[in-house]
Design brief:
The structure holds two protein chains of two kinds. Chain A is of the alpha/beta class. Chain A is 31% helix and 16% strand. The chains are: A alpha/beta, B mainly alpha. Chains A and B meet through helix 5 and helix 6 of A and helix 9, helix 10, helix 13, helix 14 and helix 15 of B.
């Protein structure tokens, strides 16, 4: 009759672990599938919504018709040039790897975002889980804050793995999530009393139904209450950050999102995704892209600096990615269109060897000519960095086996040699 | 046009089968075949004869969705409840399904009876406030179309909204005219019964009634009272200052707790 995993017993358990929260609490940096220790236990995704032009950012083609008006500048890395509007990142190029040979087949935004978040092209008969959901499913949900926070962005859900593995979507960086304070006329003691009352009601219902979906909802409730009561909620208050530090990230929502990402990772949140929207530049590509780089450059630079200064960079993998690249051909509206065939992503942190370029495109940025990287390759590489087993199989409700990704290979050249 | 004619041609059984399956899944949470849009001939079908009969009837009556819905909701399968533990067979019991966000919002407004109170206090702004709540609700998580319903059981933002949000707070407050206000005007047995009927559409069991009578008695004995500030509380605070019942004390506080618990309960949340 009484299920030991009922909601309030979960709450009691949660209360007991409160003191274990914090930076290093989730000590289960468990072994990787191959027996080596996991390298990173956090992932920060900087998602360029709309699809950033690879040519105007990390794969410049100066002095070509397709290259556009931007100059390319040298970086700390011999042989790597980036767009002139990324000066901060150019100075830090020893800390990241540029992959110039991403190649995918999805040229539609929704389909590309599905692919970029789940590793799979959409398929109406399978609800693919997002990477963050696999992460939670395999590694659990340490700490008191949600395991996967998506800042200001659309996020992909947990699919068939169940809603408790889904992302926590924060409307706007800089404010606490809605409804994390007690309601009007309620304080801690009254809230506790109410939870007991709620437990009584739910016990009656569970006794009559015993439906498994109840425990899934109860797990979400337990996590919600844990989050309400967590001292780590203060991570959401960016005002606590010195003004000078806030300034380094730039005065933009994306900058604040990156600062928040750092603060959340510091409290132990495994995955944070920060979206920078506006890259779908079919018209007026250069003005708009320059403006976006003006937000990206300080934010991502400050993030890389802070992770390093706090000695979090080895434990935190950072991925810069968007829907796809954009066409080398400049259209009649000074715009660039969708180009999934060849594009760039950037990786930093973990065991990523910074200061390198992997893969290459042809003279115009149209085709990959060296070391093509597929989404499964990228997912496999990231998963292994985080100590996940990319091939571990789960079964969908219709009995279909599915793993995080099973077609890819780890890109060893991206990693420091061990 | 030719396509439309072909689709609805009586001999094209696929359109009718697909529609019947969708409607059946809508009402019962699970179709004859799943996923509902996968209607290939070789797919295994639960209760082929029933599906076929419903599809034929649907075609014969000019694709009358109303008639189809009526047939489904009057079926024995639909009327089964989620309780009980019969041996498994097709639709032997109603699978628990969470309400959609819109259903949940509407259910909260109806159960708490704060609609009229809101209208009285907010006047013309009530629609805007409701719209905002709806948007907040939607934002809590836009459920993907390709997520089957049974995996959606609410997210953290949605849970937080039910625990601490304005609608739960206002709806469980002892306001003049709300469900809690009405219940407080009655004796405890009738009052608790009203709270249950409003939230769960059933009276409390004997055990539940006894439990809550004890709860109210304890509130009185221990003189529960939470002073609510004269200021603050946002729209809920404002509403409370305008419409709260005076001089009710610990008993009102206990009723508010009970109703809050019912609104947050699994039994309220799931269609069963």
């Amino acid at each position: 009759m009484t299920n030991p995993l009922r909601r309030r017993s979960l709450l009691a358990g949660a209360a007991a672990t409160v003191t274990l929260g914090g930076l290093t609490s989730w000590g289960d940096r468990s072994a990787r599938a191959d027996g080596q220790p996991a390298i990173a236990d956090h992932l920060i995704v900087l998602w360029m919504q709309g699809g950033a032009s690879h040519i105007d950012t990390f794969d410049p083609k100066p002095k070509t018709k397709e290259g556009g008006p931007f100059r390319a500048i040298k970086t700390k890395t011999p042989g790597l040039e980036v767009c002139e509007h990324l000066p901060g990142l150019a100075e830090r190029s020893d800390r990241f790897a540029v992959v110039r040979s991403m190649t995918t087949k999805e040229g539609n935004h929704d389909r590309a975002r599905h692919l970029g978040h789940t590793g799979y092209a959409p398929n109406p008969t399978v609800a693919h889980p997002a990477f963050g959901a696999w992460f939670s499913h395999q590694k659990g949900q340490p700490g008191e804050l949600p395991h996967y926070v998506s800042v200001a962005g659309p996020a992909h859900d947990a699919g068939f793995l169940g809603v408790e593995h889904g992302p926590f979507v924060l409307r706007q960086p800089g404010q606490r999530p809605d409804h994390t304070g007690y309601g009007f006329g309620v304080d801690r003691s009254r809230f506790d009393r109410r939870l007991k009352a709620l437990d009584f009601v739910d016990q009656q219902f569970a006794g009559r139904t015993g439906d498994p979906s109840l425990s899934s909802r109860d797990a979400v409730y337990a996590r919600s209450v844990r989050m309400m009561r967590s001292e780590h909620l203060a991570a959401f208050d960016l005002d606590a950050e010195p003004v000078a530090d806030r300034k380094r990230y730039g005065d933009s929502d994306f900058g604040r999102g990156c600062l928040l990402a750092r603060r959340l990772v510091e409290t132990g949140v495994p995955m944070v995704e920060v979206t920078l929207n506006g890259w779908d530049t079919h018209t007026d590509n250069f003005t708009r892209t320059q403006k976006l780089m003006g937000q990206l450059d300080p934010a991502m630079s400050a993030l890389l600096d802070d992770l390093k200064a706090r000695d979090l960079h080895r434990r935190t993998l950072v991925l810069w990615m968007g829907d796809f690249g954009r066409t080398p051909r400049i259209n009649g509206n000074e715009g660039r269109d969708h180009h999934p065939k060849a594009w760039s992503v950037v990786l930093a942190g973990g065991a990523i060897r910074g200061g390198q370029v992997y893969g290459a495109t042809d003279a115009t940025g149209t085709e990959v000519v060296k070391d093509a990287v597929s989404m499964p390759d990228l997912f496999t590489t990231m998963a292994m960095q985080l100590g996940l087993d990319p091939t571990a199989t789960e079964y969908t409700p219709t009995g279909r086996p599915l793993s995080l990704t099973n077609q890819g290979s780890q890109i060893k050249a991206l990693l420091v040699e061990t | 046009m030719a396509l439309a004619t072909w689709i609805t041609a009586g001999e094209n059984r696929w359109f009718a089968r697909a529609t019947v399956n969708r409607m059946w899944a809508y009402f019962l949470g699970r179709g004859f075949f799943e996923p509902v849009d996968d209607f290939r001939p070789h797919e295994p079908v639960e209760s082929e004869a029933l599906l076929d009969a419903l599809a034929r009837d649907f075609v014969a009556h000019g694709y009358d969705l109303r008639r189809l819905s009526r047939a489904i909701v009057s079926s024995a399968a639909y009327r089964r409840s989620a309780t009980g533990n019969d041996a498994p067979r097709a639709w032997h019991r109603f699978d628990l399904r969470p309400m959609s966000d819109t259903q949940l919002l509407d259910a909260l407004v109806v159960a708490t009876d704060v609609g009229p109170v809101l209208t009285e206090v907010l006047g013309d702004r009530v629609e805007r406030v409701k719209l905002r709540m709806r948007q907040q609700f939607r934002f809590t998580f836009d459920v993907d179309e390709d997520t089957s319903d049974d995996t959606f059981t609410g997210t953290i933002p949605q849970a937080l909204m039910l625990l601490n949000g304005p609608l739960s707070a206002a709806g469980s407050s002892a306001l003049d005219g709300s469900t809690v206000g009405q219940a407080l005007a009655e004796d405890d047995e009738a009052g608790i019964r009203r709270l249950y009927l409003s939230a769960l559409s059933r009276p409390p069991t004997q055990a539940e009634l006894a439990h809550w009578l004890g709860y109210v008695a304890q509130a009185k004995r221990e003189k529960w009272s939470h002073e609510r500030n004269r200021r603050g509380g946002g729209p809920v605070g404002k509403l409370y200052r305008r419409k709260h019942l005076r001089g009710t004390g610990p008993r009102a506080e206990a009723y508010e707790d009970i109703f809050w618990a019912l609104l947050n309960s699994d039994e309220f949340y799931f269609i069963h």
